[in-house]
Write a structure and sequence with these properties.
This protein is mainly α. Helix content is about 45%, strand content about 5%. The chain has a 5-stranded antiparallel beta sheet with strand order 4-6-7-3-5. The chain has a two-stranded antiparallel ribbon with strand order 1-2. Helix 7 (about 70-85) packs across helix 15 (about 290-300).
Length: about 400
């Protein structure tokens, strides 16, 4: 990298360290109940959006699968989870974010590498300064790549000769598939299979977060076992059938010796899956069980599979994005003028929820659940029989006393 590039692209950098520290401490993958996280990322809206992408890019996706071995549904699911198919663009200059993160941990070679990679991308004209914006962590593009990771995996999905993961959906999907392939993705293997587990052994076998890194090994170790070992231990598919059939016992990629781990993100009372190396590849994309599970479940929905059979262990079910936007609209009508009914969570929405919970005599949690939605529906219906016009994709409808207010969720 040329010295003048450093001077040119860092001359007006904004210090984002406070934002990064706050955002890092409140990542939804680790803060939200798993059923809330999945409900917002694997809903009817995201499924419909994914089917549109599948229909629009049939040829490109077929070529991507041929070259990298990653099926279309999985690549599109990453696109949906990361940026809602491009509806959630990056807000922060990538150079600002990567430099700020590097300054927060001067001993991290990885963070420094991403910062210098960002400068290199600008210097070589591989990205445009005006669109080189991303997350608070510095990830950019339709499928959210850190600069250094993009440089190692960039792939031309539309055959244009240029690689633009900010504007070209095929380029973003191709780069994503190439990256997943490098993380160990196995063509044709399921990411996971929903199972029933003997209750007396379940807790001891549950492999959460880094516990399932043994999936990257070629033979069972730690909490990972071969499929035949799980079958011998009494684990069955959720429909009661055997894990192995006459065909699957000998035909790749789901064989008797396939290394798998048991994942029960809500504990022994919730859904359980035997997950494979492909789940581990998705996990490494963002290093969170909730994230990788959402990728797998959304991809299943895009293939036409049914939702998981086992329900989440909660008496206050999660809200879809449409329901969440409705809840925000009800909060707005209750006088919380800084809430926007856009279907996106945020500190203003959580503060308003806590206030309403206190008013109802509940312990304040800031969580949006079905119980609160029902309570606010009833309260607003009694006060004003005219329902608000709500749409997570449309402009917010504000009551008269909030007409001059606004803000992000």
């Amino acid at each position: 990298m040329r010295p003048d590039s450093f001077e040119r692209y860092t001359r007006s950098v904004e210090d984002l360290r406070t934002l990064i520290e706050q955002s890092s401490a409140s990542q939804p993958e680790f803060k939200l109940p798993i059923w809330d996280y999945v409900a917002r990322l694997v809903d009817a809206q995201r499924e419909a959006g994914g089917r549109e992408v599948l229909d629009r890019h049939v040829a490109a996706l077929a070529d991507i699968e041929r070259r990298h071995g990653v099926d279309a549904a999985t690549a599109v699911a990453v696109f949906g989870v990361e940026t809602d198919y491009g509806r959630a663009p990056g807000r922060y200059p990538v150079v600002d974010a990567t430099l700020s993160r590097a300054c927060l941990n001067l001993g991290s070679r990885e963070r420094k590498a991403h910062f210098f990679a960002a400068l290199y991308l600008l210097q070589e004209g591989l990205v445009r300064p005006e669109t080189f914006r991303g997350s608070w962590a510095g990830a950019f593009g339709l499928t959210q790549f850190m600069p250094g990771t993009f440089l190692k995996n960039m792939d031309d999905g539309d055959g244009s000769g240029d690689i633009d993961i900010v504007s070209s959906v095929p380029d973003a999907l191709a780069t994503t598939a190439r990256y997943l392939n490098g993380l160990g993705w196995v063509a044709g293997m399921p990411w996971g299979v929903e199972v029933s587990v003997p209750r007396e052994s379940a807790s001891a076998w549950n492999a959460l977060e880094r516990d399932h890194s043994c999936l990257e090994l070629s033979s069972p170790e730690g909490l990972c076992k071969g499929v035949s070992q799980w079958a011998a231990a009494g684990v069955r598919r959720i429909d009661g059938s055997a894990l192995l059939t006459a065909d699957s016992a000998s035909v790749a990629p789901w064989r008797a010796d396939t290394v798998t781990a048991l994942l029960m993100p809500a504990g022994i009372d919730g859904p359980a899956w035997l997950v494979t190396r492909n789940f581990q590849a998705a996990w490494r994309y963002n290093r969170a069980d909730a994230y990788a599970l959402s990728i797998g479940l959304l991809a299943d929905r895009l293939r036409g599979a049914a939702p998981p059979r086992t329900v989440w262990p909660t008496d206050d079910p999660a809200l879809s994005r449409v329901e969440f936007a409705e809840l925000q609209g009800l909060l707005l009508r209750r006088g919380h003028c800084d809430v926007t009914p856009d279907g996106h969570d945020g500190p203003r929405t959580r503060g308003a929820i806590s206030a309403e919970e206190i008013a109802l005599g509940w312990a304040p949690s800031g969580r949006a659940g079905s119980k609160l939605l029902s309570a606010l529906r009833a309260a607003v219906s009694q006060a004003d029989p005219v329902p608000p016009a709500l749409s997570p994709d449309g402009p917010p409808v504000r009551p008269p006393d909030c007409s001059s207010s606004g803000g992000s969720g």
